[in-house]
Amino acid sequence: MGYQFKVLQNTFRCRAAGLGSLVGAVIGLLFVIAWSPVAAQAQMPRDLRDQFEQLILDLEPDVAKCFQDAIDQDICSVEFTTGQFRRFRDNPVNPFEDTYRIEPDDALGSISLNFEIPSLRNRRIEPFERQNEDLLETLAPVVTDARRALVGIWKDDRMVALGTVVDSDGYVITKASEVQKRAPVECLIDGKRISARIERVDDHNDIALLKVNAVDLPVVQWADGPTPCGSFLITPGSEKEVVALGTYAAKPRSTVSGEQAFLGVNPDQTSAGVMVTEINEGEASYDAGLRDGDVIVEMAGKPIIEVGDLVNAVRCQRPGDQVQIKFLRRGRTLTTQATLAGRSLSGEQAARFKMMNCMGTIVSRRGDGFPYVFQHDTPLFPEHCGGPVVDLQGKVIGINIARQGRASTLAIPASRMKEIVKDLTRSNVAARPPVD
What we know:
alpha+beta; Thrombin, subunit H; Pdz3 Domain; six-stranded antiparallel barrel; 20% helix; disordered N terminus
């Protein structure tokens, strides 16, 4: 759904880059760019707040402050100087493509943008979709045991994360980056909110240990052994029995910054697939025979429909892996094999990569840099991280730790979680003063 560009008195109504739904349907993103006087101040919805918080992490300090001021005032309007607007417009992390058509007059002094986005959390799920409520309800018995050790982490009137009970005397683990800046928080246990304090934080794995004044709590039971790729996975919730259904996409690996698999293309969306450009000699793409204008439709046996599919397909690999690529060139379907290179992304390319990967969802505050995680495609929101993910036998195979992008959620495997919990809950830790 889009919006036409037209002038309404002193207001420009533009179409921004589409936000895909949690399962891939495209939703239009509307924002209004208004010259003074400032547009009406609407209260900021949660989805918009989350989008602003994500942008703040990557913008220059003075431009980020413009978005932070809107958050602090709980309004949808963001006011810039014309210079700040230009820097935001030209920043690779800017997902609002129609801003590129706006060239404000310096004599105006400032420009105010009023943002409105459809609610991703309240989107209607169609009967044929995998996240259909009737289907999820049939899976409720599978997560019965896991939900007993699951709690909701609340701040004021909103749930900010899930937590997993790891000790019956009131010790709960959760995603640290979602609770640290919001502390103090409360745990919802048996319908009651109980104050929780942060005892200790494992920064490497983004895990916080919370302590609540409760005893005889059911404790999580970890699964033993590996989980095969392609397995169905279920994420239980505290407010409803099953949050979402997904599949195990990639075996455990490190996502710490460093060398990542790299194809060497600039991807653009087309109706036929993902068109690639900026292919240069020496890149893995060039050596595989790809050229500017080719349209990739399949990689490693997986269909490539959107840019996010290509990003995810490459990200699942390691440097040196060989992948088969099916692509279109001047009406012909061709196949090649690429040996992926290793490369550390930085600067504008890294920013663009991140922006393209995040479009269509609301990602976690911290979505990368984990020592050992597996990947699945369950469509979660940031507040669904910190809790267990189970297989179809109801075994807890890990803890959801980050919504990373359009088709990627990361989880710490049960085998590693046992080590993390053992370290966080050892006897000399419990006696330490809580973390501020």
